[in-house]
Amino acid sequence: MDDKTDVRIPEPGEGKRGEEGYLGYLLRQAAGTVRLAMERALDDLGVTPPQFLVMTMINAYPGSSGADVARLTLLTPQTISLIVSNLEKAGRLTREASATHGRVQHMALTETGYALLMKCRERTQVVNARLGARLTPEEDAVVRRWLVDMATRDLSVDAPIAGSSDTGVVK
After folding, report:
1. Alpha carbon distance 97, 104 (integer Å)
2. 23: number of CA atoms within 13 Å, CB side?
3. CA distances (Å), 2 to each of 7, 8, 63, 104, in order?
4. In DSSP terms, which residues pair with 109 in a beta bridge?
5. Which residue, among 102, 108, 117, has the nearest Cα to 84 in the 3D structure?
């Protein structure tokens, strides 16, 4: 089997792309599917998923700074700066200098930005509903707890793995 064209790459859900796969890879695969669905849902509104995320966090946490939004969205400060600049140019948000910190700018959505955010939410709520459509309420709660647990742990230094001598520390 020297010829690379003979290799059959499994479809999502098969082999290592299925239940046999590594959790980290499966999370990445699922995140890619969600990202693509979000892109498609927002495309004709002229909004990217990162822009939607930034507008969502600015709306949820009024007066937040660029650094705050970067931490909330898990995007780099440079990416936030570019997104915020583009949203501001489009009249979707405003920035106001902080009275107490010279370089900090607090952000807020404009009426236009808020109206666009509401249209985006309608679209993304459909995607979110599809995400949980096959889950019972109990399964949904378990998945949510697990995802929050993963997001709040440092997996590089976490507790030993049950039934293993592994300390969990990556060297």
Report:
1. 6
2. 4
3. 9, 13, 60, 58
4. 93
5. 108
| DSSP assigned state of 105 | E
What's the token pair of residue 92? 């979707």
Provide the sign of the torsion angle of the four alpha carbons 78, 83, 86, 89, taken in this order: negative
Per-residue pLDDT of 104-140, as tens digits, reads: 778 899 999 999 999 999 999 999 999 999 999 999 9
- Band (pLDDT 50/70/90 cuts) for residue 171 is very low
Residues whose CB is less than 8 angstroms from the CB of residue 67 and which lie 6 or more positions away in sequence, other chains included: 77, 104
- Taking the C-alpha atoms of residue 155 and residue 140, their distance in angstroms, rounded to an integer, is 23
Which residues, 6 or more positions from 81, have their beta carbon under 8 angstroms from its beta carbon? 66
Nearest-10 Cα torsion for 22, 26, 28, 33: 160
Residue 44 corresponds to which tokens in the numbers above?
């004709």
Q: Are 145 and 138 in contact (CB under 8 A)?
A: no
